[in-house]
Amino acid sequence: MYNKSDIELKVAEFLLQIKAIKLQPNNPFTWASGWKSPIYCDNRITLSHPQVRTFIRQKLAQLIQEEFGSVDVIAGVATAGIPQGVLVAQELGLPFIYVRSKAKEHGTGSLIEGEVVEGQRVVVIEDLISTGKSSLQAVDALRKAGLSVAGLAAIFTYGFEQADENFAAAKCRFQTLSSYGALIDYAAEHSIIAKSEMELLSKWRLNPAEWGQGQALTSES
What we know:
The protein is an alpha/beta fold. It has one domain (4-206): Rossmann fold, CATH 3.40.50.2020. It has helices at 4-17, 50-68, 81-92, 133-144, 161-169, 180-189, 195-206, and strands at residues 21-23, 29-30, 36-37, 39-41, 73-77, 96-99, 112-113, 121-129, 148-157, 174-179. The radius of gyration is 18 Å and the shape is globular. The strands form three sheets. It has a six-stranded mixed beta sheet with strand order 7-6-5-8-9-10, sandwiched between helices. Catalyzes the transfer of a ribosyl phosphate group from 5-phosphoribose 1-diphosphate to orotate, leading to the formation of orotidine monophosphate (OMP). Orotate binds at residue 130. Belongs to the purine/pyrimidine phosphoribosyltransferase family. PyrE subfamily. It catalyses: orotidine 5'-phosphate + diphosphate = orotate + 5-phospho-alpha-D-ribose 1-diphosphate.
């Protein structure tokens, strides 16, 4: 039986343990978008840790079977979703394809790599969901190629409302192994972050675009 809450916390534990996720509420990171963030997530690091890599592979495969049923092919999203997708496809004994960030500028000009069979039912694999924009570009490419997208599965989501709205608008279901909420719950319970930092972490997800812009980031007076 797939116990979502237990898996969410275990994945959060692993990601913090191997420093795939770093929390710095009072010394925030700057994302490529320019957003200030108290969290930085790089799930590529999971690939260097066999125990974590195996757990994530198995649980993503289980999630797909539980949530999406029978599928014909697994598709990874370039670049970080490619290795995760390969692992999941191997676990399920399914073909694998991947979607490039942009079409080749030479040769066939392909946007999708691998054998694409029109009408196949596909689940898309990502490592991380923020706004969902790049993930949904891949979903759109697969649909235009004639595949039926059952949904998308990822390791982690920040839980932004914008992502929920974007996926709903695209009529694409998505599921993740863990989430920002589960991560904060685990970090607080195990004293990984101070109580004084909890308010900062909570406020960030409510308004990530403006959080930390022109204001003091400490929650203490």
